[in-house]
Design brief:
The protein is an alpha/beta fold. The chain contains nine helices and 17 strands. Helix 1 crosses helix 3. The structure holds adenosine-5'-diphosphate and phosphoric acid mono(formamide)ester (CP). Pathway: Metabolic intermediate metabolism; carbamoyl phosphate degradation; CO(2) and NH(3) from carbamoyl phosphate: step 1/1.
């Protein structure tokens, strides 16, 4: 029996509630499969597209005098509730269908960041939808948002993405795991907060959920970190005619490919770095990157990229 953190990608969760619920229902079957096999499972998820959509809607309503302004950290907390709700419901339905008695709970999670993190001066985390270069330039001029090209897929608004330091609700998460619950935590990388003289305060940023998931996996002493995204494997020469799937990546190989610029910053690079942090900071740990659709195949070793500290195979 292993303790596994499964991180679901925000971009892999679809663009609408209907799409998300359909995708989450499908993934719930595989996640409950892990539970049925006796593993302790903690689920985290991204929120880039979702927090961007919520923020856009709230800004529109506020600009038109329909609501008060809702600050960005509040939008992050809403995204945790929205995605957590779909995950909870789908997991509960699937557990019920398979006749498994287990509680499911989402923990609204705050993650402490350093207010002097240089990321606040260099927005890099894509949120919301994709725009053409011309539309992005127009919105940038009108609203002052920053846009950047996202891994060949178009232009997206970017916000600061500071490093996660401490998971505020870690004790509660551990209590729930030990009590046998299936826990959803660290959604959207956690709502970023800083310590002030009067206590914690939310800051407008989006923490990379892969980095937070690696921190969570380390702090709960997990055996494996599984990152589910939109691609079945990590590739070299990604998007080119000669792209090649990497089925097993040792830390040494991963560093070589990073130096070679094989993993796009803001998308695949933080996933690889998070996996490396996790597998190299404890013994017998492994990380797996694959698509939301193919978790079962990846667990059976048919697809996916397995990352280990050394070149030795290490599976759950
Ligand atoms: N070397 C690579 N191999 C595979 N995918 C890559 C690579 N470099 C960039 N990508 C892109 O990274 C994406 C995953 O990052 P992202 O969309 O940010 O993930 P998520 O939102 O699911 O966490 C893939 O769908 C792919 O478009
Ligand atoms: N918070 C975060 O990393 O979201 P994505 O997975 O959508 O990029």
């Amino acid at each position: 029996m292993a303790k596994i953190v499964v991180a679901l990608g925000g971009n892999a969760l679809g663009k609408s509630p209907e799409e998300q619920l359909k995708l989450v229902k499908h993934t719930a079957a595989s996640l409950v499969g892990l539970v049925a096999a006796g593993h302790k499972v903690v689920i985290s998820h991204g929120n880039g597209p979702q927090v961007g959509a919520i923020n856009l809607g709230m800004n529109f309503a506020a600009e038109n005098g329909k609501t008060a302004a809702f600050p960005f950290p509040e939008c992050g907390a809403m995204s945790q509730g929205y995605i957590g709700y779909h995950l909870q419901q789908s997991l509960q339905n699937e557990l019920h269908r398979q006749g498994i008695q287990k509680d499911v709970a989402t923990v609204v999670t705050q993650v402490e960041v350093d207010p002097s993190d240089s990321a606040f001066q260099n927005p890099s985390k894509p949120v919301g939808d994709f725009y053409s270069q011309a539309d992005a330039a127009k919105i940038q001029a009108e609203k002052g948002y920053t846009f950047k090209e996202d891994a060949g897929r178009g232009y997206r608004q970017v916000v600061p993405s500071p490093q996660p330091k401490t998971i505020v609700e870690l004790n509660s998460i551990n209590h729930l795991i030990e009590a046998g619950s299936l826990v959803i935590a660290g959604g959207g990388g956690g709502v970023p907060v800083v310590k002030t003289t009067t206590g914690l305060r939310g800051v407008p940023a989006v923490i990379d959920k892969d980095r937070s998931s690696a921190l969570l996996a380390d702090k709960i002493a997990a055996d494996q970190l599984i990152i589910l995204t939109a691609v079945d494997d990590v590739f070299v020469n990604y998007g080119q005619t000669n792209q090649r799937a990497l089925r097993h990546l040792s830390a040494a190989d991963a560093h070589r490919y990073i130096d070679d610029g094989q993993f796009a910053p803001g998308s695949m690079l933080p996933k690889i770095e998070a996996c490396l942090d996790f597998v190299t900071s404890g013994d017998q740990r492994s990380a797996l990157i694959t698509s939301l659709d193919h978790l079962d195949d990846a667990l059976a070793g048919k697809v996916g990229t397995l990352i280990t500290a050394t070149a030795v195979n290490a599976t759950v």
